[in-house]
Amino acid sequence: MKISYKGIGSNLKEILFEEFRKNENTLFVFENSASFFEIKRNFLQDEKMQQELGIFQNFKMMNSYDFYENLFITDKIVIKEEKQVVLFYNALTQKLKKKMKIKNYYDVIDIAYNYYNLFAELQEYKIDLEKVELEKWQVKTFKTLLEIDNEIKKIVQLKGLILPYMLRNVENISDSFLKKFNKICFVNKVKITPFEKEIIKNIESRGIIVKNILQLSKNDFNEEKLKINDSFSIPNKSESLEKFETNIEIFEYENKFSQLLGMIKKLNDSENEEKIENIANFKIYDLQNNGEDGKKDYQLLKQEKISSNLEITMQKTKIYKILELICNILENVKVIGKNSESDEVENEDFESRIETEKNYKIENEKTENLENYEFEKENKKECNQSLKIRMKDLYDAFKSNDFLKIFKLKKSYNFFVEIAKEGYKYISKNEIFRILKNQNERYYKNWTDIDIEGIINLIDEIERIFEYQMLEEYRSYLEEIFDRSGELDKDIRDKYFEALSEMVVLEDFSFDNLWSGFFSENVISASLLKLFLKYLDKKAISLNLEKSDEQDSENIAKYSINSFSAISETQKENLILLNIQDTFPKVNVNNYLFTKIQRAKIGLPISDDEKRIEIFKFYQNILGAKNVYLSYVKNQDENIDSAGVIEEIKLKYSIKAQKNKINENDELDFIKNYFLENIEKTWKPREIGKFIPSKLEKNLDKIKSKKLSLGYYDFEKMETFEYGYYLDKMIGETEIEKIDEKLEDKLFGTIIHLIYEKIVSKNKENIEKKKLLIKSKEDEKILKKEIKDVLKDVLNSYKYKISEDYLEFYKKISFKEIVKSVEKILKKMMKRIENEDEIKIYSEEKIKLKSEKKLYENIFINGVIDLHLKLKEKEILYDYKSGVLKNKKGEEKKEKVDNAFKQLDYYSIMLSERNSQEIEKFVVDVWNGDIMDDKRKEEEEFLNEDDILKVVKKYYETDYYDIGDVKDVQNYTYQTYKNICRREDELNDENK
Q: pTM value?
């Protein structure tokens, strides 16, 4: 192979055009695809060259990828990308799976790619596996990989398949392809592997001339190792700048925004000076190659002036995010009627659901699609196999506007928000219709206010695709969902359907146990969709090398910021390189299993080799341009510095970095003139004045005009933080910010209260007649069974509000203790009243609005008493508490216990007008079954009617809201609103 050295900074276009003029039967193979597309485009657009060569052109151009695609041929099926992972998993024996602790397909993805990359490299660099020196920790892993390699070779041989790296064999070289050319000329092939060296020898043995054109000097290239020399660097000033007349400017900035404004200033100055005949000659590249993150840096730019053409993946597209949301839903659904204690309840609900659906269909005239549903009993089997969908996944989906639009869910949004606030962890069609039947104007005043069509259709769709067991079933759905997404970008569409076609053909390869052997039975549908997402992960978009440097009529932007990976080696008039940070050049090198020292020792490439290739492209572009603008960010506080190549240029060419600190006025000026248009008025800076205390004045007329029913917890807020109470009432209920899988404290308390209420209610007659005897072990056994049955019924009634993942834990740990405590408390309660003659029970007595106690003006107090016993001579009030009332030593937390008794004081005041009997109060610790006596002695420890009246009068008669106590860190309401009320500012820094 002859190497033609052209030197760094040489003009690639002139070099190749001179070769083209010879019009020889030559194939030009470009290692850099960007150079290939640019040279090809320039050649086709050069009218003089086209006329000179005429219609008979004997040479051909091709990038490296296409060259090898044509060079190697086989009659076997080539397995690529994700299909390689499927093959890998299919080849594993049970022994290997057990050794590697592999349970399903997704456990092998990373292992598979590591294996393929490693063994492809070992073959490419012709490494003798017998001579590889391993550390002790590597021996077992490498031995396992060899076993896998042996199994894969067996299966590809059996099924007539071949892997890409196996295809790269001189035996597979295509004679018919090579016979077309007399010469093959590589362009800037700065790295040649041992296998490629063997290929070149094979080509030359056929009488074909092989040549390599390098834009390097002979001293820069190691002809023995066929790679760039380790000592490669930018030439000295006398050898380069004077020769090429390159003007280099280096700029240092404190942050990316300043760097961006600096670039804009440079472009504006150049335009104003009219130095540039064609602004398209300004080429801009970002060296960080951050894809989507990089695009965010430029999203504020007006795309008509500067656009960004950075590479991103399908993961950032609308359709990918939609499919990901669907996949998350499918992964966590629960099948109704399968392995559930609540199956009988679901079946009982079916008949009522049918009736509810019919009523909804009749009354909701706005709903059209529901008319297509057949609400008949023959659907019972289908309904029993319907799904419970996790609300957490639905919540994530409802946050996506694209998802709402595709599934027409916007009208169902309010209904979803309501049931989310009610604490639902799951939802199903059965439960939705049960809610509608029992809503009793709870959510809406009439049925026509409720639009559930969208959410019902969504659940139907999820249930349908949940049944998919094969990729072919998914094909039409995935085609349909893309069309529904409204995605118009052609590149995204092409990549999407490319991945879809690649995936579906997997089932044509006759792999064993597709797909039941790959995934668990319950999640095959979700796993197949996840498999498609994996295919999309490999697809990059938005970086079209063929068009990236082309400025045509369709591209209205004056300038385009491109990824450095898209840079060619051709000369440029004006070059801007951004973000030349210390991470440059960032390269990907396979570091699986072998250390860097081991790789170098056995002859595998290391990161330094790949970095030199990127540095070559960097220096070639700098020295091949007329005007070069280099910029970087340097911030010692954030540990951000410039790349070594910048320091080398500074040192060799004696160029100092211009440290541009852009002041605020310049920033504002650039922003106004570049990001905005039609600025008519001069912008005048405004200063923020001093805080003006509002004193948070009350609207007393409004307060006094409304009737107020005050519960105990509202009273507490009013007492400790009036403004917080006002804000709570003004804001009202808000949308939930997240759905937690754990059981909320409030719901936990509700469940416990309900258990006690049902137990007492069920035994009401026996308690009142003192027949609830718990003396023998048999009595205890009967009572315990009764409590467990009640617990089971209560939990079933909350089956949509308790995560199944946590339910078993709650049953075994938390509620097991509740069963014991209920039994203990009933014994103590019966002991307390065993000598009473008259007993009457009021469990969870609700003091209704009409019988509330009027306290002051239009304020009434109300509340709910957990258990109210009326005896002949006295009354007893019990309050169940599920919070922690004792510390680790078993001592009562006085503040919490006293507050619980104050709550009972509050309730007793409501009862005081009914009779004048003595009232005893007890607080029940539901966790350990303790009944706490009232140990308060001092008068201030009790809450009386005058105390409540004092708080209420203050609220009604003072002009300004009380704004709480900043020192009261336990005041949750104050902590919530402290940044709104701004207590320190309102009080002028007093009483902090």
A: 0.80
